[in-house]
């Protein structure tokens, strides 16, 4: 059984609409106004193009008021700030990306190094290249660690940089070469104008003989001494650390100068004092200042010493001996345990991958979103103008 | 070569001026139906006049985009419909909307035989109420088809939808308008009365 839907007759609809339309009074001068607007020359003043033609008085309104016709161009102008805002946002994102991405993508080396300013002449600590060379001298397959941590030198006018430098070196020498190596290191320190501050050797039966030396060498010779020391055996570990203490040095000097000036003033006052109580009071102040000066001078002396001599700690061990605690052979894993470990490792790897990619993905999403916003506004604007 | 370019330029200029003339004529012919179409969409003559001016000025400004003469009328209606949409979306909600009271006042000013006037006024009100009940996507095809007299293909061009979509919308609109029995009865009554008057 088919059910016919009730629909209004088309002819009746035409008739009804035409009847209803008659009720809308057409403005008498509407078309003439339109013609005038169309044929009006476009000026170059503030009202141009559509604005000039469209700012017609829409007469014959029920209220009888004078109105301006709003134009599409005005609507586009209204959107201009939005477009500009979107563009600015996109540029900001790009700028942010350009600053953030290099940091994000920078490969962090296992040995954190900081480049030194090239302006510093006569640097008393080894260059990065020398450390790389030293580290490269170790045979392949052996544990090798080289760390250089330096602090940028603050540029202080009129004050040479004061660098406190330390280093530690782990060497493995051939069987029975421990003593000869220690002698060589001592000679090296003395030959470069330095000295040995501590020395120690250990020889426990069943374990590899080992020893350690602390070399104090002038800062200017540190680089050369370190380089030469690395040739005495296989380098297992190499660490250097340089700290810029110029600021601290200058600060101490300034404090001492200020206190000295105060002391001089108190001395002048004391020379003019007439009674005992005044003399005692001033003397007390002078004693206090002198104590402070001595304390600061001590710190300054230590700093001077530290920046005059660099410390290199060398630990030496003979090769060819088994280690004190041989590693336990790993227990064979069952299939399930192996699979479980594999699954955990896979999950962790996947999560790490996702996490590391999230930054880039977020950036791409932001850029796409900004582009969509811009294209959408531009498309809308273009569509309004092109229809 | 130069001569060819000159001749081509001249022909293009001639074509452009021909198209301008045709557009101007079309605007003139379509002014009244387009105005009333806008009235039906926007619900009041004042907004309709503004929208129409805006639409025709826009059409004139972008007349160069028009290449096919046969599409002139639907193209113009498309501009008008878009201007009305734009007005409905952006400008009318921002200010106090004029109610249909203005429209009814306008309707009340129509002239005619008193008996016809009463029936006609009722019919107009019924038409407006019925149109008011239709969503815009159904209302516009109905107005363009049964008032402006556009074909389904032309409506499709005007509202940038497929012809099938227009067809189904018109069908749905007619089905919904049938739910207004008063509209149908008043239309029949008025139609018979007019026929009698003519005879």
Keywords:
heterodimer, A: 387 residues, alpha/beta, 6-stranded mixed sheet, 10 helices, 6 strands, B: 199 residues, mainly alpha, Rna Polymerase Sigma Factor, Chain: A, Arc Repressor Mutant, subunit A, 9 helices
Describe the structure.
- The complex is a heterodimer of chains A (387) and B (199).
- Chain A has 387 residues and is an alpha/beta fold.
- Chain A has a domain at 128-249 and 306-318.
- Helix content of chain A is 53%, strand content 14%.
- Chain A contains ten helices and six strands.
- Chain A has helices spanning 10-22, 30-39, 49-54, 72-105, 128-136, 178-191, 222-229, 246-272, 276-308, 335-386; strands spanning 145-150, 163-173, 195-202, 210-218, 234-244, 309-318.
- A six-stranded mixed beta sheet of chain A has the order 1-5-2-6-4-3.
- In chain A, helix 4 packs antiparallel against helix 10 and helix 8 runs antiparallel to helix 9 (276-308).
- The radius of gyration of chain A is 43 Å and the shape is flat.
- The two termini of chain A are 48 Å apart.
- Chain B is mostly helical.
- Chain B folds into two domains: 1-98, RNA polymerase sigma factor, region 2, helix turn helix motif (Rna Polymerase Sigma Factor, Chain: A, Orthogonal Bundle), CATH 1.10.1740.10; 110-199, Arc Repressor Mutant, subunit A.
- Helix content of chain B is 80%, strand content 0%.
- In chain B, helix 7 crosses helix 8.
- The termini of chain B are far apart.
- Chains A and B meet through helix 1, helix 2, helix 3 and helix 10 of A and helix 1, helix 2, helix 3, helix 4 and helix 5 of B.
